[in-house]
Every structure is written in C-alpha cells, then in structure tokens.
C-alpha cells in the first residue's frame, strides 16, 4: 500500500478476515487471527462482547453456547470464568474437514491479548456488538486503543476501523474520538431501503457502509460512493459473487475465506 493516503483508498479489493480465517480455524481465537495474517488478510475482523467484570472479549454471539463447551450470557461470566471454557472443540465437531487436535481447548481472547499479540502488525476491523447491553463499551474500547498507541497521530489512517449496526454506538465513538474511521453496518432490510438521504446522514460520522451483500446492487454501490462512502459488504464466500461486487465498485469484502483470491483466480 505504498503511496496510498489511507488503507481505505487501496486500489485492490480489501480482504477483511471475518472472525479471523474462520473457514479454517475456530472463529475469534488467536489461532484464527494468526492464520488470517499468514494468508495475507488486509484486516482482522473482531466482534466484541463484554464480561461481567468489564473486560472486552472477542466473541460473535452474546452467549457462549455456540462457540464454547458451556452455556449462558457472556455478561454473566467473569473473565476468569470465561477463560476456563474450551472455545475450539466445537469447530472440530462442526467442521471435521478442517478439524485439528491443536484447536481443542483454545481460549476466548481478550481484546488486550489480541493487541499484545499483534500490536501494530495487522489492521483491525472491530465491531461493538450489542452495545446497548453493555455500559461503557465504547470508552473501554477507546482506552485500550489509546494504551496500545493505536490512536496516535502517526498511525496510518484506516489502520483501525470501528464498525457497528448501532448508529448510537458509532456516534458516541465519533464524539469521543473524531479521528477514528467508522463503518455503519446494515442488515438486509436496512440496506434494501437505503436512499441517498440515508448515505448522506451516515457520512456525517462514518467513512464506509457494511451492508449485507444479499441486499445490494450496482445502484446501491453508486449511491453510497457518490455520498463519499466506501462499501464493504458482508459476508461473501463465493468468488463469483465477489467478482460481481468488485465490478460494481465495492472497496472491500468480509469473507470467511481469507485466501479467496486463490479461489477467484480459478474462476477468472
Ligand atoms: O461485521 C460485519 C459482519 O460480521 C456483520 O455480521 O453477524 O457476522 O457480525 P456478523
Ligand atoms: Ca462482525
């Protein structure tokens, strides 16, 4: 990305490793993020939940049911309790094709541990999940970013992106740290009804939109781009769909297959 003013302006399609290299390793584990980095992801995608004692942890669901060997809401676990859980074995059972004994008993990482592991060596695409359920999720996130020097002026623009389905959460972050680049996520329903006016409003606080790819077409991409927004649809695992989206002018895609370019090469 030499000579780019911002990572976001890259001419190549940005590959956002959705929950890490989650097609090949248990989502939201350090192993999954490391693999995404090795496979050349432009961004590591991280969903955030918060423990009972206020630690930010990487997990998609607000319960531990699907991705660990226990049950219950994340917010009912202290970090110490959460750390006892096995966040890898479910993958071996669900996806035997990529099962690996090394995945057994992997732990749920905290955002702190993720920053300790990768520092400034990767680009982060971080989602505030269920922000209405958690108090001070945004300030906890910003203080951790600050502690790891990720808010410094010297940090490349776009190195850290914060995404959310919640406009409120994004506006809160924008007020606290206007220099951070934000992404408004949209459900299928929201993306379908988005108009010029919607994009104009989003551009007050965000630099990109992340719509469900199933709801968008060329006209959507044009309207969003005309409003100055980048378009990063989620979650696209079919190389042909990616090619079409690229032709429409999207700037990046969330994918579970970090090596999607190899798949793309086969269809081109
Ligand atoms: O953050 C983009 C995409 O990941 C949104 O969907 O449910 O996978 O977090 P979800
Ligand atoms: Ca996400």
UniProtKB/TrEMBL annotation:
GP-PDE domain sequence ranges: 13-265
PROSITE patterns listed in its UniProt record: GP_PDE, PROKAR_LIPOPROTEIN
PANTHER family on file: GLYCEROPHOSPHODIESTER PHOSPHODIESTERASE, GLYCEROPHOSPHORYL DIESTER PHOSPHODIESTERASE
Gene3D superfamilies listed in its UniProt record: Phosphatidylinositol (PI) phosphodiesterase
Name of this protein: Glycerophosphodiester phosphodiesterase
């Amino acid at each position: 990305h030499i000579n780019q003013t911002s990572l976001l302006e890259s001419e190549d399609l940005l590959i956002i490793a959705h929950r890490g290299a989650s097609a090949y390793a248990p989502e939201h584990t350090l192993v999954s993020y490391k693999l995404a980095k090795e496979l050349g992801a432009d961004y590591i995608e991280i969903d955030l939940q918060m423990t009972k004692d206020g630690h930010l942890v990487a997990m998609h669901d607000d319960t531990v049911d699907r991705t660990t060997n226990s049950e219950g809401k994340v917010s009912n676990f202290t970090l110490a309790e959460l750390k006892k859980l096995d966040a890898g074995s479910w993958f071996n059972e669900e996806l035997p094709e990529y099962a690996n004994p090394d995945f057994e008993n992997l732990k749920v990482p905290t955002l702190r541990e993720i920053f300790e592991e990768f520092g400034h060596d990767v680009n982060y695409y971080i989602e505030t999940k269920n922000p209405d359920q958690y108090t001070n999720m945004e300030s906890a996130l910003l203080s951790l970013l600050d502690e790891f020097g990720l808010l410094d002026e010297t940090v490349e623009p776009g190195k850290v992106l914060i995404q959310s389905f919640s406009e409120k959460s994004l506006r809160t972050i924008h007020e606290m740290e206007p220099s951070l680049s934000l992404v408004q996520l949209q459900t299928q329903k929201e993306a379908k009804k988005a108009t010029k006016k919607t994009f104009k409003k989003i551009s007050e606080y965000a630099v990109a939109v992340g719509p469900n790819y199933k709801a968008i077409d060329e006209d959507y991409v044009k309207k969003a781009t005309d409003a100055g927004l980048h378009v990063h649809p989620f979650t696209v695992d079919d190389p042909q769909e990616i090619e079409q989206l690229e032709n429409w002018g999207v700037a990046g895609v969330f994918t579970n297959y970090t090596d999607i370019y190899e798949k793309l090469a086969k269809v081109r």
